[in-house]
Every structure is written in structure tokens, then in C-alpha cells.
Amino acid sequence: MPIDMPAAPGFVRSSFGLEAHTQTFTSPLTRNTQRLVLTGGRWRADYTLPKMNARQAGPWMAFLDQCEGMANTFNAYDPDRQRPLGAGTGTPLVKNASQTGSSLTTDGWTNSTLVLKAGDYFSVNGELKRVIADVTSDGSGNATVTFKPALRSSPADNAPLTLTKPTCTMILESDQQGFWECDHNGIYQEKTFSAYEVF
Fold first, then answer.
1. Which terminus of the chain is less hemmed in, N or C, by CB atoms within 10 Å?
2. What's the chain look like in SS3?
């Protein structure tokens, strides 16, 4: 079961983004370049914690210890986009099973509303997605959502979409992420840890 990160203190900086997985070939004769998007695009993150005293740092130390280096997973998210900029109202659900690719037919939204804006996140079926075009529901609350990266597996009919603090599953980037620097006053210095998504 993935571990939850402590709620406080929050991050002072973060870097969160999608690492695409592509293949290219350039002809040595014509310099024509062929490009192919492969499956396996994944989210990566760098999280920076503020200076903290021992009491504040304790939960974060415990979190990193629970990760045990690269052994255990945790629930990761983009701290700067924890809620949609669109209305995000209703109870959105996947409409119909066996959907694949980079779009989902959904229902359950508030009728005739701009529910998601480009750049908003949602999670479904344990996968984190970022919306690539504004989404407006129709008069019956249906909407087609386009996003990246593509689905790795088809969500079930009526699977819920999580819009508030949607997460993906990550592991720490190395076994050396649990080291802390502390000054002579007992103040732990800013600390950055890095992670990437695992499937």
C-alpha cells in the first residue's frame, strides 16, 4: 500500500512533470527523422522541504524511513495543482468500459459547465493524467476528456475520476534520499528528495 506524504510543513519548491518515452531514428543519407511515442511515459518529481526544527522534521524523517530507499511506494502529486482550475463539479465517472488511448468518455458532471481546464490533473484507475484541452460538459453532464500520458489499462465502467489532490505511485530515485543536514542550533536545512512513477 503506498505511503502518504506528511501534510505539513509544505514544500518550499517543487518540480513535477511528465517524462515522455520516445524513440527516434535519423537517416544518415537524407537526415529524415522518424519519431515514435512509446508506452511508459512517467511522472517525475523533485520536492524541497523548508528549514525545520526537530519536531517539524520528525514526520518527514519517518516518511523517508518508511520508504526504505527505493523499496516502498508513496502517493505523489503536484503540490501546485491540487485542485482543478475548471469548476470540477459533479460526480464524474468513466462512461463505458474498454476505453484506451488519450481520451475518456465520462458522465456525472454538472450540466453545461467548463469542468476542467487544460493543465488540470485527474486520476483514474490508479493513473495520474493531465488534461490537454478545456473540457465542457453537455446538457446531460457528459464530457470527453483528452489527456496525457495515455492510459496503461482500461478503467471499468463507472470508475470514479479523482480531481482533488490526484496522485500517482512513485518511489524514491535512490537509496540515499534519507540523509539530513542539521546545523549547530538543531535546525535541519532545506532538503530536496527526488522520485519517479512506477507502474
1. N
2. CCEECCCCCCCCEEEEEEECCEEEEECCCCCCEEEEECCCCEEEEEEEECCECHHHHHHHHHHHHHHCCCCCCEEECCCCCCCCCCCCCEEEEECCCCCCCCEEEEEEECCCCEEECCCCEEEECCEEEEECCCEECCCCCCEEEEEECCCCCCCCCCCECECCCCCEEEEECCCCCCCCCECCCCCECCEEEEEEECC
pTM of the predicted protein model? 0.91
Give me the CATH number covering residue 90. Answer: 2.40.30.290
| pLDDT band of 45, cuts 50, 70, 90 | very high
Same domain, 41 and 111: no
Looking at the structure, tell me whether residues 134 and 193 fall in a common domain: no
Per-residue pLDDT of 96-124, as tens digits, reads 999 999 999 999 999 999 999 999 999 99
Count: domains in the chain: 2
